[in-house]
Each structure stands twice: as C-alpha cells, then as structure tokens.
TrEMBL record:
It catalyses: a (3S)-3-hydroxyacyl-CoA = a (2E)-enoyl-CoA + H2O; a 4-saturated-(3S)-3-hydroxyacyl-CoA = a (3E)-enoyl-CoA + H2O. Keywords: Fatty acid metabolism, Hydrolase, Lipid metabolism. Belongs to the enoyl-CoA hydratase/isomerase family. Its EC number is 3.8.1.7. This is 4-chlorobenzoyl coenzyme A dehalogenase. GO terms for molecular function: 3-hydroxyacyl-CoA dehydratase activity; 4-chlorobenzoyl-CoA dehalogenase activity. InterPro entries: ClpP/crotonase-like_dom_sf, Enoyl-CoA_hyd/isom_CS, Enoyl-CoA_hydra/iso, Enoyl-CoA_hydra_C. CDD domains: crotonase-like. The keyword Hydrolase applies. Could possibly oxidize fatty acids using specific components. It comes from Mycobacteroides franklinii.
Length: 258
C-alpha cells in the first residue's frame, strides 16, 4: 500500500477504514479514497472482519464535485468515468462479504446517500441530513441509489425522495430505515467504530449467511425464503462457526470464532 493510499484506507482492530470524503472540495466524494480501496477490497486480508465507511471532513459525503463536472471539456466522458469508478467501488464492497458500517455525520447527499444505502448499519447524528441531490443539477442517480433506495424505504418513498430532492432529517431517516441508529453528533464516529469492531470479532460465517438471506429476501416469496433459511441453518449447524457457538453456549464459555 502506497503512502497516499494509507491516507484513505487502513486496517485497525480488524476493521478496514475507508475514507470516502475529505475536507477538500467541500467533502465531495474523494476518488483517491474510492480508487485506493478497490484493490484492497478485492483481496481482503484475513484479519479484516468488517468495513467502515467514513470521512475526515465536516460531512460524511456531500456527493460529487460539481465544479469538477462543470470544468470538464467532455462532461459525458467525465461522468461516465467517475460513475464507473464509483460503481467499481460499490461492487467491490458488495462482493467483500463483510458487514459494512457507515459513520454518517453531517450531510450525506448524492453519491454520499448511495454509500449510506450500501452499508448494513448506518450510524447518524441528531443533525445528520440526507438528500438525493441529483435533480438539483439536472442529473439522474448513480452509485446504486435507484436499486437500493426503494428496497430500503419502498417505491413510493423512494420516488418522493429522489424526484422532489427534499432533505430527509435524521429523525425521519431513522423512522423510514435510511439510518440504523441516531446518536449525539459528537458520538457518531465513536459509535460507528465500536460497532464495526464488535462485528469484526463476531461469527463471520454466520454474519455472511444473515446478510445473504436479507439481500435475497427482497425478491423472494415467503415460501422460497423459508426454504433458503432451512437450508442455511442446517448448513450452519455443522460448520466450524456453528459447532463452536453451540459448544460454547452449552459449556457456558465465551465462543472463540474460527
């Protein structure tokens, strides 16, 4: 890992920290971090048990750098390139098979909201605000928002949030499922880190099974999902993780997860 990459991606206590935005250009999406993370996500060290998306600026991520778009000689080529790089990142996070936590302080707008939706657990602050932002500059969405948003909040709410470009305050975001928890503004980062570190020490195989079931449930009938759950729990019972979990419970000891 280069010294520049280390400014954006680092492993601490089993958690891969990825900085998606910095103070530069008003906490717009920082592609130095996005690009640096992709190769590491595709070949994760065994020690990594969770992924944390965060920012070193005042906001989680205020979306794309609009001034950069405006100055491009060929805007279509510029946006095609940036969207492709962002989508490489989204695909790499999705394929990493690790729980994803987002530390959502301040604003999450545009691509920043797409990244919130990418997380399994999103921790926000009392003054956190979310916004689609794309219609405000005459653009359609990227980063998987049109896929993830209706799955998170339903088609009607997704259309309202995207088409009207309204601001979603933290309390509403929590109630409709855009955020998992809301804490005091000065506790967002610490809570997100603690959550990611707890996940990193947990039963990784069981976590991956749960995450797969949750994702498949969106397009499955109840009957099909019941079959998947039945097969998954039976397989889990004879896996090293499942055996250790039950043995530890019966033996009244703390499990040592493989």
């Amino acid at each position: 890992m280069s010294s520049q990459s280390a400014d954006y991606v680092a492993v601490h206590n089993g958690v891969l920290h990825i900085t998606v935005a910095t103070a530069a250009a008003g906490t717009s999406l920082d592609f130095a971090g996005v690009d640096a993370a992709v190769p590491l996500l595709r070949d994760l060290p065994a020690e990594v048990g969770a992924i944390l998306l965060n920012s070193s600026g005042a906001n989680f991520c205020a979306g794309g750098n609009v001034r950069d778009f405006a100055s491009a000689e060929d805007r279509a080529a510029k946006l095609d390139d940036l969207a492709g790089r962002l989508h490489d990142f989204v695909r790499a996070v999705d394929a990493a098979d690790r729980p994803v936590v987002a530390s959502v302080h301040g604003w999450a707008a545009g691509g920043g909201l797409s990244l919130v939706l990418l997380a399994d657990i999103a921790i926000g602050g009392e003054s956190t605000k979310l916004r689609a932002a794309y219609p405000g500059i005459g653009y359609s969405s990227d980063g998987g928002m049109s896929w993830a948003l209706p799955r998170a909040v339903g088609k009607a709410r997704a259309a309202d949030i995207l088409l009207t470009d309204r601001v979603v305050e933290a309390s509403e975001a929590l109630s409709i499922g855009l955020l998992s928890r809301v804490v005091a503004d000065d506790e967002v980062q610490a809570t997100a880190v603690a959550t990611a570190e707890k996940l990193a020490t947990g039963p990784r195989e069981a976590q991956n099974r749960i995450r797969r079931l949750l994702r498949l449930s969106a397009n499955n009938t109840l009957d099909a999902q019941l079959d998947l759950e039945q097969a998954s729990i039976a397989e889990a019972s004879v896996s090293p993780t499942g055996i250790e979990g039950v043995d530890a419970f019966v033996g009244k000891r703390k499990p040592v997860w493989p």
